Amino acid sequence: MKLYLVRHGETDWNQKSRIQGQTDTPLNDHGREQAQELAEKLEQEDLNIRCIYSSPQQRAYETAQIIGQKLSVSPITHQGLEEMCMGKWEGYAWKQVKEEFPEEYQVWYTNRRYQQTPGGESYQQLLDRLLPALRDILERETENTLIVTHSAVIMTLMSYLYDTPFEDMAKNFKTGNAVAVEVDLSLLSSKGDLQIPVKKTGD
Question: Is 30 a catalytic residue?
Fold first, then answer.
């Protein structure tokens, strides 16, 4: 079994560098084109993807539908794969957050893994809901699986798996729109607090 994570295609808020979080923004036309291009690439690479899961947010699910149509796989939404809730900062650009919420931003910035955004989540809280979702998916599936999700979700998981500082996640693991990343399942299975029985197939 192989596991791939995909960040959704572009939205207008991506284009304007606005913080989306759990605001349910749709893909724009470019995002749909990106998803279609990725779908064609996945088909050409013949990765034998048999299962597609998606965040329930529409930008992710629409990306999953476009990919699924090309691969003849119906996507399934799964709670826990949503983008990090950024609370009252959603809709702002990061520059605006720094200017309008300087004290709250500084408190969050110095302890990003465990400090919640105002009215939102911390990266640790995101991880705490993501890991059970991954466990459930990997307990269900034995064939190659693709998960369509969000930037912070991917960066948080990779930082956790590779034991790198969460403060460096953007530098280490930033993923573009409609880009696929393979997850090292041996790292997943080695995490004692995750305890995912990764199944092996002939792939």
Answer: no
What is the structure's pLDDT at 186? 87
**pTM (predicted TM-score):** 0.94
Rounded-to-integer distance, Cα 201 and Cα 89, Å? 44
**Which one of the listed residues 10, 83, 90, 121 is annotated catalytic?**
83
Q: Measure the CA–CA gap between 47 and 17, rounded to whole angstroms.
A: 32
CB 180 within 8 A of CB 4: yes
Q: Could you tell me how many residues make up the chain?
A: 203
Residue ranges per structural domain of the chain: 3-83+123-190
Report DSSP state, residue 79. Answer: T
Active site residue 43: no
Fold adopted by 3-83+123-190: Rossmann fold (3.40.50)
Q: Give per-10-residue mean pLDDT for the chain (203 aa).
A: 97 97 98 98 96 98 98 98 98 97 96 96 97 94 97 98 95 97 89 58 44
